[in-house]
Amino acid sequence: MASLSKCIGMMDEGIERTIQLIPQLPAVEAKLSRLLLMVSDSLNEKLEFELKPYQLNHSEFLTLMFLYSRPDSSSTPGELCEFTKQGATNMTRIGNMLVKRGLITRSGSDDDRRRVVVRITAAGKRLVLKIVPPLFPHLDAMFDGLSQTDKKNLSRVLRKLALNIDRASEDQAIGHPDLPIGTMKATK
Fold first, then answer.
1. Are 38 and 8 in contact (CB under 8 A)?
2. 82 and 145 share a domain?
3. Is the pLDDT of residue 186 over 90?
4. Which of 76, 80, 91, 166 is 20 to 30 A away from residue 23, measured at CA?
């Protein structure tokens, strides 16, 4: 597999050639978008590799981490779908796998029998504590050479980009009446 740096160089060259064919191409934005995707894919591959010995994938790990980080160690399937960016069917599969391994439980809510509550177990918490600390050196290495100001600026820019993506998604849903009603947003 080619290094990320080599792939980035190839991407830069490809976009420069594409500008010759499509002069109105927003090249800077195209490069930044592709760069984000490439870095994200690389991070995901690295995390999947680190999770493999624990027989977890990224979505299962995210589910455990979300539950671990909650004040009451619990959530609902809907919240988990939102946080992990998984559909209901896949979240059910993830839940079934984690329940089978004894890492989470699913039960009815004390307040509302129709509501399902998902909770991380003691075994799930122990697994999180086994997985997370060995990731620290990888995180440090990833951000090596970036100052605290660089990291703060990167966080600020990525959060701003996330807001822009949310706005664009809302605008797209409003402008497409053929989308299901649940995906449409009210105009302000």
1. yes
2. no
3. no
4. 166
